[in-house]
Design a protein that fits this description.
alpha/beta; 8-stranded mixed β-sheet; 32% helix; 197 residues
């Protein structure tokens, strides 16, 4: 285990072998080095767990946890919370990847603005070639309330760098499939301000 990281990456995984290597490697290739990547395997039936274990042996910043299958991401969030040691949390799915400067630019933007949530530019890729770009002026700073309103119809996305205290202020409702969307919106609403990178 490494010294306390500045950023904890969290990745819930279930049968993600198709994209998992690329996702993990995109985190390990970050120019910002003070991070950990906590992967929670939800009892995958493919080679996902073996892939994660392989990377954890290569790089001690990769921490692999395994839990009984819960079927929804909120259960993985609650399972992971005690293991996320960073001052900030960055979420990504098993089929996401980051540009190599993602964590560095997000953290730098936090230092510049003091914002408790930093939202990076995002490109949603489709296997059918319909790519959607979601981003704002990188110099923009808005109130948490304005970010909350934008999130109601997802004009602002939730794949952000978030203050860990804010993220951990309430457990995820495990009886609701979309409670992660509720928590994301709640975090926006309660943030001191939201900046973009």
């Amino acid at each position: 285990m490494i010294a306390q990281p500045v950023i904890s990456g969290f990745m819930p995984v279930f049968n993600g072998e198709k994209f998992l290597k690329k996702s993990i490697e995109s985190v390990l290739d970050q120019t910002f080095r003070s991070f950990e990547l906590v992967c929670v395997d939800d009892s995958s039936t493919d080679s996902s767990y073996a892939i994660m274990i392989k990377y954890s042996k290569i790089d001690k910043r990769v921490i692999v946890l395994q839990k009984p299958n819960g079927g929804i991401v909120p259960k993985s969030w609650n399972f992971a919370f005690p293991h996320l040691r960073g001052k900030f949390i960055s979420y990504m799915s098993q089929d996401d990847w980051m540009s190599s400067d993602n964590l560095e630019l997000n953290y730098k933007r936090h230092l510049e603005t003091g914002a408790s949530i930093i939202v990076p530019y995002l490109v949603a890729y489709s296997e059918h070639g319909r790519n959607q770009k979601i981003g704002f002026d990188r110099n923009l700073i808005i109130s948490g309330r304005d970010a909350f309103i934008l999130s109601l119809n997802w004009k602002i996305h939730g794949f952000c760098l978030c203050d860990a205290k804010l993220m951990k202020s309430e457990p995820f409702d495990e009886g609701s499939f979309n409670s992660d969307e509720y928590i994301t919106r709640k975090n926006f609403l309660h943030s001191n301000k939201v900046a973009f990178s």
